[in-house]
Design goal:
alpha+beta, three-stranded antiparallel β-sheet
């Protein structure tokens, strides 16, 4: 899994989406636990940031 965060003010969501990443809204999380461990584990961005990710 490739992931990162960017500051909301930078508005980089469309850039990462064009390159195949899923861009979450600032208050969203994604569950990475079931794939990795079989248990729920939420991954999200910190305050004022957005998370982007892509599974390879």
């Amino acid at each position: 899994m490739l992931f990162g965060e960017f500051e909301i003010e930078r508005a980089l969501g469309p850039y990462y989406a064009r390159h195949g990443f899923t861009v979450l809204n600032p208050d969203q999380t994604t569950d990475v636990g079931f794939v990795l461990t079989g248990r729920p584990i939420a991954l999200g961005a910190g305050p004022g940031e957005q998370l982007f990710f892509r599974w390879k």
